Amino acid sequence: MTRTAAPSLTAKDWNGLYASGKATPRLIGDGESRSAHSRLSLVRDMRAVDLGCGTGKWTRQLAAWGLDTIGLDFSQVALEQARAAVSHARYELWDIDSNATPGLLLPGSIDIVSCRLSFSFFDRSRLLPNARRWLTPRGQLYILTNVTDPHAGNLSPFECGMSEEEIGSLGSDGWHVRDVFRFNRRVGIVLQPSGSPGP
C-alpha cells in the first residue's frame, strides 16, 4: 500500500506558520459537527484528548459539548493562541512522535481520542497501539482526514490526508471501523479496539 506523504515539519516550522498567520484555523462545518456528535455517542463528562490540536478550535468544540477535554500539540505558538480563547478546554505541549507519553494519558482512562486533520502527520505505528491502550473499554478513536491522491505530488500541510486505500486499511491491526461518514473531500472515521463492547 502506498502511504500518502505528509510534509515533514518540525515544531519550529509550525511555530513560524502560526506566528505568521499562515496556519489559520480550519473551520468546523455544521455537517461535521452534527455527524461527529451523533456518531460518537457523546455523553457529558466523557474524557477526550485532541491530538495535534493546533489553535484548539476542535478542542473547544469538544469542551462545549460537556466533555472533559485536553488538547495536545507540539507547537508552543499554536497553544498560546489556543489558550487565548475562552474555553473550559486545557492544553499541553507534547510531541506525540518523539516524547514520552505524559502522565495524563493513563491506560484505560480516555473515552475519545480525536485526530482532526492531524492523523496523517503522526507515526501510526506508535499512535495506534498507544491510543488502544489509553481508551476505556468502550472508547473510540475519531479521525477526520482529507481524501488525497497518493500520486498527487507535493501537498501543502493543509491539503495532506489519506488515500482511499489507506482509509480502507484502518479496520485492521487490532481495530474495527464502527462508522464512516463523508462530506465534501473529507472523511470522518470512528474506530474501536477489536473486541470492545461497542458505544
UniProtKB/TrEMBL annotation:
Residues 49-143 form the Methyltransferase type domain. SUPFAM superfamilies: S-adenosyl-L-methionine-dependent methyltransferases. Keywords: Methyltransferase, Transferase. CDD domains: AdoMet_MTases. It holds the Pfam family Methyltransf_11. GO terms for biological process: methylation. GO terms for molecular function: S-adenosylmethionine-dependent methyltransferase activity. Belongs to the methyltransferase superfamily. This is Methyltransferase type 11 domain-containing protein. It comes from Streptomyces filamentosus (Streptomyces roseosporus).
